[in-house]
Write a structure and sequence with these properties.
By secondary structure, this protein is α/β, with parallel strands linked by helices. Helix content is 36%, strand content 22%. The chain has a 7-stranded mixed sheet, with helices on both faces. β6 and β7 form a beta hairpin.
Length: 186
Amino acid sequence: MQPTLLSSPVFQSVLSRIGRLGLFIFGWRTKGRVPDLKKFILVCAPHTSNWDFVFFLLMVFKFRMAACWMGKDTLFISPFRSLLKRLGGIPIDRSKSLNTVSQMAKEFDRNDRLVIAIAPSGTRRCGASWKTGFYHIAKQANVPIVCGYVDYKTRTGGLGPVFIPQGDIAQDMKQIQSFYRDKSGR
């Protein structure tokens, strides 16, 4: 992965202030802390609004996380394409089967430090079932999953538990999703 603005200590300091200010202005607070891990998948849920991206990005800034994030390629339009990539964006063409799981697992192998944020619902539709790509990436790359969240009811967002995929996808997904039961989307 190419270095992003979030990889630079100077930009991290500036962006952390922007994150804190933005969350304060919107009346949001954060909970949790970044786990002491070099590599992990950051689940971003629930994903019910375009505002989720804004709040997750402000939290990433505040927490000084050098996170990359996967988003549909249609978000990466001119004149914002370059900025979104510099902010860690990875465009994903969902209309084609490009073996994204293997590609992302290889990125974990190639990098000493890597955090990839993924919205598992893949859509803003309320009640949409989760896609399991994030789980397969974590399993194939042998990295943990960290539960990130936004809760509009309490205006709180943050980082929850670290989960190690065990290989029983049905049971593992049940455990991961149970963390989000009391989190309200927009």
